[in-house]
Amino acid sequence: MHLPDGIIPINQAIIYWIIILVFIGFYFYKIRKTEDYKYRLISTAIFSAAVAVCSAISIPTPFGIPIHFFLIPLAVLILGPNNGVIVTFIALLVQALFLGMGGIVSLGANVFIMGIIISFVTFGFYKLFININKSLAVFIGTLTGIIFASICQMLIILISGSGNFEILTITLVHFYILVGIIEGFINIIIMSFIEKMKPEMLDLEKI
């Protein structure tokens, strides 16, 4: 889901950069007021490293288009949506600088898609369904976050004038629905494991 440099016009790329910088500034404003400041920073660093590795792994499919898992929804469910944005920013920055994935100009758009959209959609749907069933909330939150992100990426590419609607629909949305379903089930297992083995992790204030 990484957009490389050259896809988005510079004037559009600047807008996405401004948006994510506002979210990053808000994150640091909020985190300074938390009692678990140091523990949260450590958790953020761990998740950032995990996301950088996890989303860098390409998994081949029978259709010839590799897919990537995110791990961002899991970070959101444990730490909160604003934390998901900063985790995504750090992970994608590392990938752009050291792994040649994405780019610096397009970093704002990539964080907007994978950080802001995945984080807030995941958290919103999780909160919407949490009183019905916790596992269902985890699954739907993860799935919808990834689906909305794929739709957002498609729209950003269309706005930039760099893609065709039909081709993007075929190559993006269907594959990331599959990713969302798989990652949703994985997150149910992980969240259940954490709840049994280290429940205090789930008591962190969701920022």
What global shape is seen? globular
CATH classification class? Mainly Alpha
> How would you sum up the major sheet?
none
Low-confidence stretches: none
Radius of gyration, whole Å = 16 Å
Give the terminus-to-terminus CA distance. 25 Å
Count of helix runs? 7
The CATH level-2 architecture is identified as Orthogonal Bundle
- Find the structural class using helix and strand composition: mainly alpha
CATH topology (fold) name: Arp2/3 complex 21 kDa subunit ARPC3
Estimate percent helicity.
over 70%
- Beta content: under 5%
Number of domains: 1
N to C succession of SSEs:
HHHHHHH
Mean pLDDT: 88
E-strand count: 0
Describe it:
This protein is mostly helical and 207 residues long. It has one domain (10-203): Arp2/3 complex 21 kDa subunit ARPC3 (Orthogonal Bundle). The protein contains seven helices and no strands. Helix 3 runs antiparallel to helix 4 (81-99) and helix 6 (134-160) packs antiparallel against helix 7.
Question: Which features would summarize this protein structure in a list?
Answer:
single chain; 207 residues; mainly alpha; Arp2/3 complex 21 kDa subunit ARPC3; globular
How are the SSEs ordered, and which strands pair?
Blueprint: H1 10-31, H2 37-54, H3 72-79, H4 81-99, H5 107-129, H6 134-160, H7 165-197
Helix pairs in contact: 1-4, 1-5, 2-4, 3-4, 3-5, 4-5, 5-6, 6-7
